[in-house]
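Quick one, tokens below:
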């Protein structure tokens, strides 16, 4: 094997997107100065790393424990993109917190997945099934993400954003009476 040529990047801005694009383009990257302005000496060893991507395979019956921070929504966006361009369809069960202050799984299911269909992603095989919900601090709930494979995306031009016809929401509660949830629904 010959010497690997790394594309050099600086800083930690958009690190997830950088690693995602490096994986899709099979480009090795070296990220430096991740914590350039951090004065804590504890992190000195973690200021640089190299990433050499392999082949994105996909697969069925995969399971990943996301922990309690960040929530499952943090992992969904890169997983969908990697799954679309993998060798085999992706089916993965994610365990952890389904809702936090960032993107929750309901928002991802009702906003991102329909948007992907406009880019030519087939409806068959593209699914996010919420099997159970979990909130901080313990989480412990899971979702099932299924992503088909595609060859390319279709270009989309969005000129007219349209009118808002209705606003919908999802409500759930944990460890409280369902009366609180009903009151919240009627107050909205």
């Amino acid at each position: 094997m010959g010497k690997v040529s790394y594309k050099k990047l600086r800083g930690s801005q958009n690190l997830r997107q950088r690693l995602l694009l490096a994986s899709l383009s099979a480009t090795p990257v070296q990220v430096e100065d991740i914590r350039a302005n951090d004065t804590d000496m504890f992190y000195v060893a973690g200021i640089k790393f190299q990433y050499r991507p392999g082949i994105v395979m996909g697969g069925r019956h995969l399971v990943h424990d996301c922990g309690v921070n960040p929530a499952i929504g943090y992992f969904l966006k890169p997983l969908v993109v990697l799954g679309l361009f993998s060798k085999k369809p992706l089916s993965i069960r994610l365990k952890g917190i389904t809702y936090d202050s960032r993107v929750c799984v309901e928002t991802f299911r009702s906003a991102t997945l329909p948007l992907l269909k406009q880019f030519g992603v087939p409806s068959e095989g593209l699914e996010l099934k919420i099997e159970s919900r979990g909130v901080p601090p313990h989480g412990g709930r899971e979702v099932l993400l299924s992503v088909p494979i595609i060859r390319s995306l279709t270009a989309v031009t969005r000129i007219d954003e349209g009118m808002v016809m209705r606003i919908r929401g999802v409500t759930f509660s944990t460890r409280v009476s369902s009366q609180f949830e009903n009151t919240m629904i009627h107050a909205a």
